[in-house]
Amino acid sequence: MSQPINNSAQTTLIRGARMAGGETSDILSANGVIVAVGADAAAQTGEQAEVVEADGLIALPGFVDLHTHLREPGREDAETIATGSAAAAAGGFTAVLAMANTSPVTDTAEAAERIAELGQRAGLVEVIPVGAVTAGLAGEQLAELGLMASSRARVRVFSDDGKCVHDSRVMRRALEYVKAFDGVISQHAQDPNLASKSSCCHEGELSGRLGLPGWPSIAEESIVARDVMLARHTGSRVHIAHVSTAGSVEVLRWAKAQGINVTAEVTPHHLMLTTDLLAAYDPVFKVNPPLRPAEDVEALRTALADGTIDAVATDHAPHVRHDKEHAFIDAAFGMLGLETALPVVCTAMVESGMMGWERVAKVMSIAPARIARLATQGRPLVPGAPANLTLVDPHRERVIDRSSSLSLSRNNPWHDRSLTGTVELTMLQGRITARQGNVLGSAYE
Fold first, then answer.
1. pTM to 2 decimals?
2. Of the candidates 22, 13, 18, 3, which has an alpha carbon nearest to the alpha carbon of residue 58?
3. Contact 84, 68 (CB under 8 A)
4. Residues that are catalytic
5. Distance from C-alpha of 352 to C-alpha of 367, rounded to nearest angstrom
6. CB proximity list for 280: less than 8 A, separation 6 or greater
7. What confidence tens digit (pLDDT) does each residue in 182-224 have?
């Protein structure tokens, strides 16, 4: 249901862009499709084409976010599908998967179709609903998995994110059920018996010194280990959301070596921010799972570079001030991420020499689209492919200003930080949706 957005697709010639592989090329799009790449592109350009000068810019497939909280319905004071779509387009995304922990929960076909419909109305990115695994996120009865999958929304990713599907029997049944239509369960790996509701800081010397309830790594790692074994047993697909520990990386590396059908994502903030930032009790750094020590960050970076972790996903989690500005232990979990994902990945992974731009395209577009089974996203920029792309300036530095965000919320952990790499243009189905941080032609304007 989410695909037909193409209202007033443009004819556009992108001139002199650098492709992810390093070659320089022109790209011509018309009627929502890439029609020519290379020397032929300029020759086929008509008088009505808009020309985009892309000297020094890198052309990548449009980004796909597997993990976005858009808050609508229920918390439209923090974000709406329209404002979240605007932030996504400005960040280079052409598709986002909207998590199910809304109010009401996205646990029925009707609720999923409503999310997709609102995304189409916003018109800036494909908004693909994620269905809940269990009714009401209660962890007991399976939600309408089959009905959501067969609905017009065509849900393929299911998650109780914010909560763990901690009952092994329920998780097994969910994996067996979604296998019939090639679905995937995205697990928020957190054993509630090992990490209590009040846990809010990585368990270690710092949590003890700060007097904050500790969140041990094993609370995540034990669920990851259980779920990869359940995936092997059922032959179904499991996806591990926001991996945060070196131990989880070890389990994933072992599971992939065994041929188990498991994929995983890491957030931009877990690639750069460390638990020592909590020393000032600033609630903007309270996130679920918590920030981890530097050794975990290094393990996550290595795993993303070598393919053990498949994708970057933002876990964009907007909150209004009265939910976030509390004593650390009482503040809401979560950070903004859509508008800063590319510069964080560029700074942490490309500038450090750990990844090239072909790998960036893989982890921010190609792999997420494959995991979510999005046929029109994450495609190579070749003739005949949908014109979903992003132009990136790999060298431009920018100081992040939370007040300039297109999100309704301001819980931005990157405020006042200088990051390298900016999204200069985003194109969805041949239509330019954002340019230099400004959205074009949407319900948001």
1. 0.96
2. 18
3. yes
4. 315
5. 22
6. none
7. 999 999 999 999 998 899 999 999 999 999 999 999 999 999 9
